[in-house]
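WARN no homologs supplied; continuing
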Amino acid sequence: MSEKKIKNIFVAGAIHPAFIAESIAKHATKTAIGGHSIFMGQVRRDEIDGKFVAAIDYTTYEEVALTKMHEIREAIFEKYPLSCMHVHHSLGNIKAGEICLFVFTSSAHRKPAIEACNELVERIKAELPIWGKEIFEDESHQWKENI
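OK structure emitted
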C-alpha cells in the first residue's frame, strides 16, 4: 500500500479568479459529484488605529505546514465522503481585495461538501503555521491576529 503524496498548497502571490473558474470547470466531467462547496478568503482593507491595511504579507514554515495539512486532509477524507478536495493558500504580499485562500470540496451530495469545507477552513486557520504581516498604506506594519 503506497502512502499518499504530500500536496503543496502554497501559491506565490494572489489566487486569481481565472484559476478558481478553471478549477470549477475541470469538475464538469465528474458526473458523480452532486455538490461543491467553495470558500475564498480575501484580504480586507481593515482600519486599525486610524490606518488602513493595504496588503498582507504571508509567510510559513512550509515543511511543517504541508505535513500538518496532509494530516488534516487525511482526517477530512476519513470523516466525509468526498470526491475531491483542493486547498490553495497564498504566500507573499497579497493586496487588499485579492484572494489569499481557496478551499474547494466536492461530494455526491451537498451536505458533506459544505461541512467538510467549513471544517477544513477552521482547521487551516487554527492549525497551520502561517503568519500574516499587515502592511498599512503608510508602509508601517504589524503581525495579524489569526481569527
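The helical segments are 17-25, 62-79, 110-127.
OK
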